[in-house]
Each structure stands twice: as C-alpha cells, then as structure tokens.
Specification:
By secondary structure, the protein is α+β, with helices and mostly antiparallel strands. The chain contains 17 helices and twelve strands. It binds adenosine monophosphate and magnesium ion.
C-alpha cells in the first residue's frame, strides 16, 4: 500500500468544525451580566422538545450574518435540526436553554402568572461587538405552558418571520427573526396544522410582565435585580440619575410612545397589546394576530378574538400608555431611595408625583412624534398653522371611504402643485371623489406655499411612505404554498419587504389592493 502526497497532507491538517457546529459553539449561556445569569427565580433551564424531520422554511441572511453565520450554510440538515430544538448532539449541560417566568394583564384584566410557555432562550451570541439573544418560539412545553402544547404552527411562524423582518426594514423597532424551521408534526388548533419554530433574535426579551411578576409576588429583591440588569445592560446612563429606576421608567415611556407613533403612521395593528407582550426595550414583540390596515378604518380590529376592540387601531396609543401605568406600578417599590429621609406619607406622595410626571411624558412625546411622522408622510417640510387639521381631515376622508391606507399615502406623492393632473392614482381610491377633491385642493394650496419642487417633495415622501407592507393576503399566499412545501413565496415576499420604500416594478402586484377573497381572512390569538 502506498500513500499519495495528498493523503499525507490531509492527515496533517485538522478538519475545521462545520459552520453549524461553530454557530452552536458561539452561543453563550453563562455570561454574568446575561439574563440567564439572573438565576432560578427568573427562569427554568430545560432542553427544547425536538421536532421530527425538521426542514428549513426561510432564513434571513441579514440576521444570520449578524450572528456570524453564512445563510448559505443553512442547507446543512444540522441547521434545521438545531433551530428546531434538536442539535445533532445532546444539549451540552452548560448550554441548556431556558424559559423565563412573567405575569401580566391580558385584555385589561390581571391574568396572574404566564411565562415563556412555548419559547425557550438559547443564550446570546456576540458578534462584531453586538450581543443578541436567541429564542426558539414553538420549541415545546415549559413549566409555564399552562394548558398549551408548547408549539407554534407553520402559519403563525411564517407570519412572525415575515413581519418582524418587514417592520425592521420599515425602520420600526422590533425583535427580529433569523429563520423558520418546519416539521410535519401535527398540531391541533381550530383545524389540524403542522408545527414550526421561529428563531427570534433581540438584545433582550424582557417584558413589562416580568416586572409585574415580581411586584405582585412581593419579591422586591428580585424586582430590583431585574431592573438593575435592564439598566446596566440597556440603559446604563440611568445610573447617573437621582432615581435610576424612575429614569428607567422614563426611558421605556419615551420608547413606547415612539413605537406607538411608528405603528400609527404605518397602519400597523398589533392585536394583543397585553402587558406581557410589551418589550422593555420598546420593540414590537410577539407577533400574533397582527395586521396592516388595508381600507382605512380607525376602529379596525385585527384580532378576531378581540370582541370589544380593546386593541383596535386607534386605541393602541392609549393602551400603550395604560400598559406603562402597569409597569410604573410594578416599579413603585424601587422608587424614591433619594427620599429615604422623609417621613412615610411625604415619601410616598413624592414617589407617586414623580411617577405620574414621568408617565405624563408619554403624551408630550407621542403627539409630536406622530405629528412629525405625518408631516413627513404628507411632504410638508415647513411647519404651518393648520397642518394638524389637514392631516386629520385626510384621515377622516380616508376613514369615510375606507380608502387604502398604504396606497393613499404612497400615491399622495404623485400629486402636483400646479394642477390636478397627478391626482388620479390617489383620487381613484376614494368612492366619494368630491370629498377627496375638497381636501386635495386645500392640500395643493398648502404644498404650493413651499418652494420645494414636486419632484423633491415626491422623493422625500417616497422615502417615508412604504409601497410594500405585509398585507394579510400576501402572507396568506406564501403560507398556502408553504403548506405544500413550496417555500419560494416566503423568500420572495421577504425579499420584496426588505425594500419597502423602493419601486420594484417586477413586484408591482405586491403593492396592489387586496383581492376579494382576502376580505374573509381572519386572524386570531390561536397561533
Ligand atoms: P400570547 O397571547 O401568544 O402572547 O401568549 C400568552 C401566554 O400564553 C404566554 O405565556 C405564552 O407563552 C402562552 N402560550 C401561547 N400559546 C401557547 C402554546 N401553544 N403552548 C404553551 N403556551 C402558550
Ligand atoms: Mg406573548
């Protein structure tokens, strides 16, 4: 037997680990300042419950790259296995995933203990100086599953994947999604469906409900530990404030106000704004029965289970504010160390006054934030008296005509100062043309007061009024094909939504009005 030169070389070079193994190896679960290190009062460590014969449904190359992984390597079956909760080897003991405990108010009513009933944290990856936590949603039962099966279905997993990526590219703070892994394992909802797992990615998955949990259970030490974790990791400048915990409430209030304005401006409805679905970082989190409004209706309810319309489009800012009260209440035991010299009543009075002042800041932040967004959407570069009326009158006419939210705002950019020659694309969206014309004339007069050319105004407007949003019927088309194991539409749609403000002539149909069949589409909490 003789050795060839190449075989000797192969012996000398140790094989480098497969990319999926390197990815798993890069997940850390023991950093002292990580959420998982808060300990057993906050979470339970447990393995994921693997899904049989997992397959890749979709992957965001952008998020994969942020985690130091090349999406092309996701074809390795070990990738689908890992992100279905089933790594090729057993979970190494020191890398055991975790489910966290939280509580919350659901539909305005105290719901008691909830927790990650079907999400488990894998740990964090630090790449290019950025630390991101990974979470598998739908990876099996946890101690917080209550009556649930710990699973998520393919339909809702695709919706979450597409929408979190779409929101990011609209410039709206959100958790992200790296991939969806499917399996043929049946899951019972209203009908039989199949299971899937979304890998969500965010700097933190801490919710208002985490704070409510420790407050309600009178566990002030844990409450403080959690608040300190959030401050030290995400709001370190709050440490310098007289009352760091009040400063934290202030930060969360401002971010939540900004998020509510962002949602309003793009016609997004979350659907389940329970306090356990509110991110302490002001991110859009927990995509369930969400929806982008098609024909505008200020009272639009996207969640079929929300019979009272608590989370209707126009209610969302108020609900965000209400949820912040719940957070403030939960933080009360931490407030006021600077008043420790005062007597009890005086101290309490000051604490309540401070908290109320901070919460009032929501209104001071939200209204101007929305006004700024709306001004840009209408292409008003200068501030003039009566602009707010002009905006609200547009929404009134849209509301009365059920004019398409996204197309109306997008097509406004085609209107011209000099005459009505560019009105048709937007005017045609209104049944009551005369009512539109009244508004359009006022709008024309208003933009004529500015020196900006029609073209410059249109360019600016097109950069803030998306052409493409994740309309329900687009998601539905992708889901129908995916159920037949054709995932090409998931990828195509994700690609379109990555550039929501650009003209993409080959994808014109994705910007159109929903087809008639889409009016029957219903989304509910059952995901
Ligand atoms: P959501 O309305 O999706 O935010 O969920 C509210 C609570 O129910 C959270 O504690 C979830 O973890 C839990 N949950 C929802 N669906 C399931 C499920 N299929 N299995 C276990 N827990 C679930
Ligand atoms: Mg939730």
């Amino acid at each position: 037997m003789s050795f060839s030169p190449s075989s000797t070389a192969a012996v000398a070079e140790p094989a480098s680990p497969a990319p999926v193994d390197s990815l798993l190896a890069s997940i850390e679960t023991d950093r002292p300042d990580a959420f998982v290190s808060l300990g057993s009062a906050f979470l339970t460590r447990l393995p994921a419950a693997p899904l049989p014969e997992p397959y890749l449904v979709g992957i965001s190359a952008d998020i994969a790259a942020q985690l130091g992984f090349n999406a092309a390597d996701a074809q390795d079956p070990a990738f689908a296995a890992l992100f279905a909760g089933n790594p090729t080897r057993e979970w190494p003991a020191e890398k055991l995933p975790y489910a966290s405990v939280y509580s919350g108010h659901q539909f305005g009513v105290w719901a008691g203990q909830l927790g990650d009933g079907r999400a488990i944290g894998l740990g964090e990856i630090e790449h290019d100086g950025k630390r991101l936590e990974l979470q598998l949603k739908g990876a099996g039962r946890t101690p917080y599953s209550r009556m649930g099966d710990g699973r998520a279905v393919l339909r809702s997993s695709i919706r979450e994947y597409l929408c979190s990526e779409a929101m990011h590219h609209l410039g709206i703070p959100t958790t992200r999604a790296m991939c969806v892994i499917g399996s043929d394992q049946p899951v019972r909802r209203e009908t039989m469906e199949t299971a899937a797992v979304v890998t969500r990615v965010a700097p933190s998955f801490v919710r208002f409900g985490h704070f409510e949990h420790f407050y309600t259970n009178d566990r002030v030490d844990e409450l403080r530990k959690l608040a300190d974790h959030v401050i030290d990791r995400f709001y370190p400048h709050c440490r310098k404030a007289d009352d760091p915990y009040l400063a934290l409430l202030n930060e969360v209030t401002l971010r939540t106000a900004d998020l509510m304005a962002d949602w309003q401006a793009v016609g997004f409805c979350h659907g389940v704004m329970n306090t356990d679905n509110m991110s302490i970082l002001g991110l859009t989190i927990d995509y369930g029965p969400f929806g982008f409004i098609d024909g505008f209706n200020a009272n639009h309810i996207c969640n079929h289970s929300d019979s009272q319309g608590r989370y209707a489009y126009k209610m969302q800012p108020q609900i965000g504010y209400w949820n912040l009260f719940c957070l403030a209440q939960a933080l009360v035991p931490l407030f006021g160390a600077q008043y420790d010299g005062d007597n009890g009543d005086k101290r309490n009075e000051k604490i309540i006054e401070d908290a109320q002042r901070v919460l009032e800041g929501f209104k001071d932040r939200f209204a101007p934030a929305l006004e700024r967004l709306m001004r840009a959407k209408l292409g008003l570069a200068e501030i003039r008296e009566g602009d707010d009326k002009l905006v609200s009158r547009l929404f009134e006419v849209m509301n009365a005509n059920r004019a398409d939210f996204t197309l109306t705002l997008r097509n406004l950019a085609k209107m011209r100062k000099a005459d009505a020659s560019g009105d048709a694309p937007v005017r045609d969206l209104f049944l009551d043309r005369a009512a539109f014309d009244v508004w359009a004339n006022d709008y024309r007069l208003r933009v004529s007061e500015e020196t900006r050319s029609d073209e410059a105004r249109a360019n600016a407007m097109n950069a803030v009024n998306p052409k493409y949003v994740l309309r329900n019927h687009l998601a539905e088309n992708a889901i129908r094909l995916a159920k037949e194991k054709d995932f090409s539409e998931v990828e195509r749609l994700a690609r379109v939504l990555r550039n929501p403000f650009d003209e993409q002539p080959e994808f014109e149909a994705y910007a159109g009005l929903p087809p008639d069949w889409a009016s029957d589409l219903e989304v509910s909490c059952s995901s």
